[in-house]
Design brief:
Elements (H helix, E strand, L loop, with lengths): L7 H9 L9 E3 L12 E8 L3 E5 L1 H10 L4 H8 L4 E12 L11 E5 L1 H12 L4 H7 L7 E7 L2 E10 L4 E8 L8 H15 L3 E7 L3 H9 L2 E12 L1
Parallel strand pairs: 1-3, 8-9
Antiparallel strand pairs: 2-3, 2-10, 4-9, 4-10, 5-6, 6-7, 7-8
Length: 233
Amino acid sequence: MEYKAMDSIDKSWLARLGVNYIESNYVFTGCDYYKRGGEEDLAFLYASDNLTLVSCNADVRTHLEKSKLRSLYDYIDDVNSQAFEVYIDDIDYYLSGHICDAKSNVEIDQLTLEAHQERIEQFITRFDEEELFKADFSLDSDYFYMAYLEGQPVGIIASYCGVEPFESLSILVTPSYRQRGVGKALISRWVKEVEKRGRVARYRANRENIASRRLCESLGFVAHSHIQILAKL
């Protein structure tokens, strides 16, 4: 594959993992990026239409060099092992054109962790561990936006600026206020703020978080690539 066939997103991942030269669209990095999560992690995989990028240990690499798999679930099926799991399986969405904006009665305030940590923490206690995991919500973020409806806090976005020019979000909406435009209002505001900062909005959603995926798709986001992490159980 020619290098020019890749878009800026693919190129940013190559740069992030220290790859300067490629001979095909299936690339193994020489780095240990896959170890970021801990000693149990065995492989990291990024895959778009034009690039598959893998950081992994020697055993996984031996198998993938032959099979050229684009999903780590397929690796588990191939080795027929109950000893592994794919504990991260996220889809990255990017805007195609402008966001589909809509009128809303939702009020949104920008918060800072320094001034509003107690308010943020109090709100996220409404959600269980599984919801927080699926949303990938973290206080270690750069920007926060809280949504209010009928005077009550009903949703929050945490926005993280990575090393590349892309800015990612995590979003939580109170279950009883879903389907009332809260998520759309939050994301619309976030996209505008991201553009003001001269960055590119990236919406990362867990593959199993169907509600989150439908929300971003309804606003004009398009699935571009996915990332997975394989670990020992």
